[in-house]
Every structure is written in structure tokens, then in C-alpha cells.
């Protein structure tokens, strides 16, 4: 069903935006791309100006991926804690870009690092959002062995987000990797059990199971498409949506 709301009225009041660390490196092999971070900042500013409450969960793969370090022989818990610290670095970079645009932000970290971030406290986070502040949620869940996708789902459920917006390098969910298979088929709608049964690369199984239990939709979209975040917030069909039932 096509939305009949005015184009200026957001469909979603409170969103959780999940950005991978790899996305922040842009075309570089590692680190943070100022150009790309600037563009993401502009998109967050756009939806914030509509009155949308924005929480961001950010990964750290552009600096350190815990699972990759563990595969090289490092202790998994140690590697995951390094990955959590990498997310704090990315959060500080995004905060700086946002505040230079006049957006008041707060970083909340799942591991204590009080010199640069508040501890994550659910009610405080929600209060910041109600006051119009963008909250950047760093350090995953604060526990090793859990992905930032799981952290994004957990936080979205805790703060009562209307939707999880998962930004990726492709324009949705496919039955196989579209970057290596020219015959890959894109899904426009999926339900949670389809994702789990087909083992589709939307989020890890823990994150999908949490979304299913909390009945929170996920939209998977191409972060490189300019304006996609605003389009989704306004109700346009972009990428792939995962929820309990498909649209007819």
C-alpha cells in the first residue's frame, strides 16, 4: 500500500541507523574517509531536521574487526574488545562532523570510557532523543562474541525505535552475492523466518531472532545512494524490508 502521508511528514518518528565501520572508509583500504563521513553527516542532518529522533550504532571494521583478528590466532575476547574500542574512535569522528553542523550529540558507550563518552543508560539515551540530540551508541553490547548487528537490534528494542535502518554496500538483500553473481535475485520483502531458513546475509541469526521476537522491521539499503536515508524515513520503498508479514 502506498503511503498517503504528505511528503514532508516522516513515517518513522524514532530510527536506529546501523552503519558498518567498513562503510566509513569509503574507497580507502582502511581508516576514515572525511568525504564519505561528511556525506553521511548531511543525510543524518536532513532527517534530524524533519523532527526524527536518531540513534546510530556504528561498527569498527575499518580499524579492527574482532573476528578477523581472532581468525589470525588472537584470543577472541581480546580481539572483540579491540573491535569495541575501534567503534568508539568512529563514534568520536561522527560526533565531530555532526557537531560542526550544529547537531547536538551524545556518545554512549557499552564499555566505560568516561573521558570521551557517557556510559550507556537506556533511560538517559531515550531522554537525549526526546530532546532532539543524536545519540551515537558505541562499543557494541559491551560483551565479546556479539556483533554490532546484535547490538543495533538490542538497542533498537530497548529505546523503542520504529525501524532499524541497516546501511550496506548493495541496494538490498539478494539470494546470493550480487557482487560476484550476475544472476543474483533481489528481494523487496522478506519475513524473519525466510531470512533464517535461507541463511541470508541480512544480520546474524541472533540479531534476526531478536527482531522477530520484538517485531521490529529492518530495512537494508545502499548507503552510497544519496538521499536514501531520507527517502526511507518518508516512507519510500528503498532496498529490502524484513518484517513479520510481506506487503500484498
In short:
With 248 residues, the chain is of the alpha/beta class. The chain has helices at 21-24, 34-48, 66-71, 76-100, 122-130, 148-159, 192-198, 205-214, 228-233, and strands at 14-19, 53-58, 105-109, 118-119, 134-138, 163-168, 173-174, 186-187, 189-190, 218-222, 240-242.
Summarize the structure in words:
The protein is an alpha/beta fold and 248 residues long. It has nine helices and eleven strands. It has helices spanning 21-24, 34-48, 66-71, 76-100, 122-130, 148-159, 192-198, 205-214, 228-233; strands at residues 14-19, 53-58, 105-109, 118-119, 134-138, 163-168, 173-174, 186-187, 189-190, 218-222, 240-242. The radius of gyration is 17 Å and the shape is globular. Helices cover 38% and strands 18% of the residues. The chain has a single domain, classed as 3-Layer(aba) Sandwich (Carbamate kinase), CATH 3.40.1160.10. Strands 4-3-5-2-1-6-10-11-9 form a nine-stranded mixed sheet, with helices on both faces. A two-stranded antiparallel ribbon has the order 7-8. The model is unreliable at 1-6 (pLDDT under 50).
CATH topology: Carbamate kinase
Count of DSSP H/I helices: 9
Question: Which class in CATH terms?
Answer: Alpha Beta
Give the CA-CA distance, first to last residue: 8 Å
User: From the helix content, strand content and strand pairing, which structural class follows?
Assistant: alpha/beta
Instruction: State the order of secondary-structure elements, H for helix, E for strand.
Output: EHHEHHEEHEHEEEEHHEHE
**Coarse shape:** globular
Counting structural domains, the number is: 1
Question: What integer is the average pLDDT?
Answer: 91
Can you tell me the CATH architecture?
3-Layer(aba) Sandwich
Low-pLDDT runs: 1-6
Main beta sheet, described? 9 strands, mixed
Approximate helicity band: 25-40%
Q: What is the fourth-level CATH superfamily?
A: Acetylglutamate kinase-like
**How many runs of DSSP E, i.e. beta strands?**
11
Strands ordered across the widest β-sheet: 4-3-5-2-1-6-10-11-9
Q: What is the gyration radius calculated from CA atoms?
A: 17 Å
Portion in beta strands:
15-25%
